[in-house]
Design a protein that fits this description.
Elements: H1 3-25, H2 39-44, H3 50-81
Protein name: Protein-export membrane protein SecG
InterPro entries: SecG
Subcellular location: Cell membrane; Membrane
Length: about 80
């Protein structure tokens, strides 16, 4: 196993866990887990939802890192088979 492959596997594991956590923090139709951490209060107080927008951006960036680590591991695996 090469160093790059190891780094990509660790990155994939970390981003998978963080992505799961961030998705659970999003506000759904019923409020979701974000209400437990004060997400519902910001909506009730009439704020602009800045925390929700930042959470969306962070989730998208993390999903892109997750996607590219999977593609990188796939390319390394395909190259090692040939």
């Amino acid at each position: 196993m090469s160093v790059i492959e190891f780094i990509l596997q660790v990155l994939l594991g970390l981003t998978s866990l963080l992505l799961t956590l961030l998705i659970l923090l999003h506000k759904g139709r019923g409020g979701g887990l974000s209400d437990m951490f004060g997400g519902g209060m910001s909506q009730a107080m009439g704020s602009s939802g800045l925390a929700e927008r930042n959470l969306n951006i962070l989730t998208i960036v993390l999903a892109l890192v997750w996607f590219f680590s999977i593609v990188g591991l796939g390319l390394i695996t395909k190259a090692s088979v040939l």
